[in-house]
Amino acid sequence: QVQVAESGGGLVQAGESLRLSCAASGSILSINAMGWYRQAPGRQRELVAVISSGGSTNYADSVKGRFTISRDNAENTMYLQMNSLKPEDTAVYYCKAEGVSTAFRPWDTDYWGKGTLVTVSS
């Protein structure tokens, strides 16, 4: 059983910063990539940033230069440092562990966290 849990969401004012964390736990052998997605009311879920096991990253155009994704492979933990937050960043942020293999399920499987709410006031 793999569990993915986000933390760090909250209410902040525009221009402030917030740091999200995601921890994957279980009998994990490897995780190919980990990513942050977000979904605002009335909008479809979108990719915010993703990082591979090798450390390569990719960002949505809307967050480039403001957000930074990082991970600790040894601890299966991922972070999203969000600076210069804008009201349009308000959304539920989801963590996704991609291409996960475990001792009892050694083939690639994706797991989602339950989400953490980020609200940016103007």
Structural notes for this entry:
It is a single chain. The protein has 122 residues and is an all-beta fold. 0% of the residues lie in helices and 60% in strands. It has strands at 3-7, 10-13, 18-25, 28-39, 46-52, 57-59, 67-72, 77-82, 91-102, 109-112, 116-121. Strands 2, 4, 5, 6, 9, 10 and 11 form a seven-stranded mixed sheet that branches. It has a four-stranded antiparallel sheet with strand order 1-3-8-7, with no helix packed on it. Strand 9 and strand 10 (109-112) form a beta hairpin. The chain is elongated, with a radius of gyration of 14 Å.
Which terms would index this structure?
elongated; 11 strands; 122 residues; mainly beta
How many H/I helical runs? 0
Coarse shape: elongated
- On the 0 to 100 scale, the average pLDDT is 95
Order of helices and strands: EEEEEEEEEEE
Distance between the termini: 41 Å
Radius of gyration: 14 Å
Q: How can the largest sheet be summarized? A: 7 strands, mixed
Strand-residue proportion: over 45%
Going by helix content, strand content and strand pairing, the class is: mainly beta
**Helicity, in percent?**
under 10%
- In total, the number of strands is 11
Low-confidence stretches: none
Structure in a nutshell:
The protein is mainly beta. It has strands at about 5, 10-15, 20-25, 30-40, 45-50, 55-60, 65-70, 75-80, 90-100, 110, 115-120. Helices cover about 0% and strands about 60% of the residues.
